[in-house]
């Protein structure tokens, strides 16, 4: 059989085909295996990346949570610091009426004899004091206040105010106290830091407030209260309103220790009305006992109700009632009382004289865009009802048993056949009105205020920001006018920061004696020519104060 070349070639080709196909399959499988390994490696890498991303996300969440906690606990979130500094210069002038001086021993003995039926005799010359001019041409003072507000928990805050009020060139109050007015006869609790004295930094306010009680618009506050500088005195002080804190300045201007319970109902038609019940301790009498020589003084407390019935940006109307229990004859002086010359009878509380009720209204408003500025206005009125208990003060330490002693009670004076005197309630009244016009384009503010008090008017405002005496306790008339010029400087510490100058003028006309003094009855100045109307303090007839300030609020 003959095999041709073509047959042999076909056979060889047929034999090689399976080998070639097998080699191709092996190479393809290898590529598939390689791809599978790469896919597995990539899957593992993706899985690791996902795990890393998850860990990173968890770390970011933890970091953000930690940052949030840190931010919430940072000082700037829970503690607010602000304050004010004031330099002030006053030029004071007063005219004292001629009068008979009961503190002259010879005259006091003569008057005692006349009261007890001695033969008529002319009063000794030593008891007659001629009128004179009292003045202090330049009085410089520096006042510094530091305010702290701490958020302790979600609904509890603590506020404090530290205050220093120093006379330039002195470390005491001798340049501002004197024989003229009871509220400027010494520095005592409630006026520390409000009447110029030394350079000590005192705690003027320190109180805690718990708000939103039981998820209701109810709050409770306790501590040394923000009861000084109330409405509408914030206008002349160029400060903001106290909000739900404070009390009308016509009734109370005194740093009280006490507590408040308030409620603010949601009545849209009345704006933001609220009502609060206030309690304060004016004097702590200390231990007492049953022996005759033991302390018989009672604590002096004050209870008040404030109703802010209408409260909007345009008008706020406030009614206030206060009742003072067991009014003392004199506060406990902290620094050099002028009245220690009165046998110690007025150097500290020694007897309770009775109670006093006060009723007052405070209406303040604002008219925006009136002419080329905004007009702030106010009208206040009040009644005081003194209710003596028959106790009296003997400031003379004279020898002899009753009825041989002059007596002084709560808004009463006279002599009786017993230690007590005839009790007679005394009602006084006062009005206070004025306003401030703010020119926004220039930062200029122009203010005018007027107040009048009757002969039997008495308030509780010894911490008022007046040098001569608390003007709102005047038995007579006072006018005050002032201009405030704010400087166009960019605030840094807070949006309420400001710097301004102030120039003001006060003028007092006194109708009766005893302004800001509830011990003894008042005497009309026209009746001081009678020796039977002798006075313990020099009766000022007119007084004026020209003052200027440079102030920084931060």
Explain how this protein is built.
The structure is a single chain. With 554 residues, the protein is of the alpha+beta class. It has 2 domains: 73 residues; 470 residues, Porin. The chain is 16% helix and 40% strand. Strand 4 and strand 5 form a beta hairpin. The longest helix is centred in the first third of the chain and has 69 residues. The radius of gyration is 40 Å and the shape is elongated. The relative contact order is 0.12.
What portion of residues belong to β-strands? 35-45%
Shape: elongated
Q: Could you say what the CATH architecture of the largest domain is?
A: Beta Barrel
Count of all domains = 2
CATH hierarchy class name of the largest domain: Mainly Beta
How many alpha or pi helices?
Answer: 4
The whole-number mean of residue pLDDT values reads: 87
Q: Helical residue percent?
A: 10-25%
Low-confidence stretches: 399-404, 416-421
Give the terminus-to-terminus CA distance: 125 Å
Q: Give me the count of strands.
A: 22
Structural class based on helices, strands and sheet pairing:
alpha+beta
The SSE order reads HHEEHEEEEEEHEEEEEEEEEEEEEE
Radius of gyration: 40 Å
Largest sheet: 16 strands, antiparallel, barrel
The CATH topology label of the largest domain is Porin
The largest beta-sheet arranges its strands as 1-4-5-7-8-9-10-11-12-14-15-18-19-20-21-22
In short:
The chain is of the alpha+beta class and 554 residues long. It contains 4 helices and 22 strands.
